[in-house]
Amino acid sequence: MTLRELVESQRFCEGLAAGQCDGLAACATEKTFTPGDYLLRQHASADAFYLVLEGQVQIKLALPGQGIVTLETIGPDEAVGWSWFQPPYRCQFDARAVTPVRVLAFDAGMLRALMERDPAVGYAVLKTLVATLSERVQSCRLQVLDVYAPPGEPR
Amino acid sequence: MSAFAEPTLPAPYRIVARRQDTADVFTWTVEPLGEPAPTFLPGQFNMLYAYGIGEVPVSISSDPAGGPLLHTLRAVGSVTRPMAALQVGEVIGLRGPYGSAWPLAEAEGGDLVIVAGGLGLAPLRPAILGTLARRAQFGRLCVLYGTRGPAEVLFADQLAAWRARGDIEVRVTVDRATPDWTGEVGVVTRLIGRAGFDPARTTAFVCGPEIMMRFAGEALLQRGVPAARIHLSLERNMKCAVGYCGHCQLGPHFICRDGPVLAWSRLAGLLEVAEL
Questions:
Q1: Which of A70, A146, A148 would you mutate first to test chain B, the one with the most B CBs within 10 A?
Q2: Residue B74: which pLDDT band, with cuts at 50, 70 and 90?
Q3: Structural domains of chain B sorted by starting position, each given as residue range(s) with its CATH number in brackets
Q4: I need a surface site. Which of A49, A106, B9, B57 has the fewest CB within 10 A?
């Protein structure tokens, strides 16, 4: 599958014209990571948006005195990173490959410029991003609920 | 056995083995002192009675095809905590089996997705074993299990053995990872989108804390599994286990008699009810 076909097969390309998919493909490259590689580093410039094609990625955070905690794992067809969309464009968490990982990597600056220029593309990408955020927020709420805790234990 | 002759009279059973599964979960193997233990269907439960203390409903976690009769309990309440202190050789009361079963026959010919949370894996174990005994009758089989942390993973050896078979997709996730955990992290509902099954021809069995089942059911619906093919196992305030007392009533259902296994389509709106 060519890069162009790969991009076009993503959810956010549904309903977009061929030229718009071309624009998105122009922002994208295919990348691979080996286990242990970082896709994103906390505090680093958020210059990429990833869609996982294969493999598993951990979202991690360093907690003072407690080491590095894995908050969640991300798999195929899921997005990694949204700090690229919101100033100051700094990553809030680490994203680390657990297995060999293959992604579509979008250049954040190019993608933002394209979304500004073409609101239809911007809306399509945002729909994907909001769906991802919504799912993550719901998952976080369930995690916070600590549903498996023994009854009566403080949560 | 007492279930039909005198439905609320327990029969004596001896604890012949006890396995500590996690810090607060243990599994008893029990044997009847009198008549042979009755057969059961996957998903059914027994009422276990600690003499002089109290009685609780506990799902059967053993192989429905036969072998030792197993019950997996969590020491959390005023009955199950004292039960956890009982020793091998002591005698308990047991009556059952009661309730509805996982509809394995309905699932045949299609894919089967098992979604379990925490101790909810125990009532699903007989269904998984029953499915594996007739593996060719089913399409893809997915076991999606979520629990609090790595130390709370139930039946870890069994999960590993199932995964090693190669004909079953086993995914385990934890809400809170430890540094040495290399598996998936996040709530079990996230696994539903990742598992390989064809929603239109899938039957799903779900068991765990009620709030987890509610969100798992919604995730299955969102993926395209028909509501009538999503089955949950509920456990609310069961007392008599035979539909007499009404303690476990949820809307039009007595959970002990009409459940514990009920289709999502019969539970519309009822899972939002905090208590009746």
A1: A148
A2: very high
A3: 2-97 (2.40.30.10), 104-233 (3.40.50.80)
A4: B9
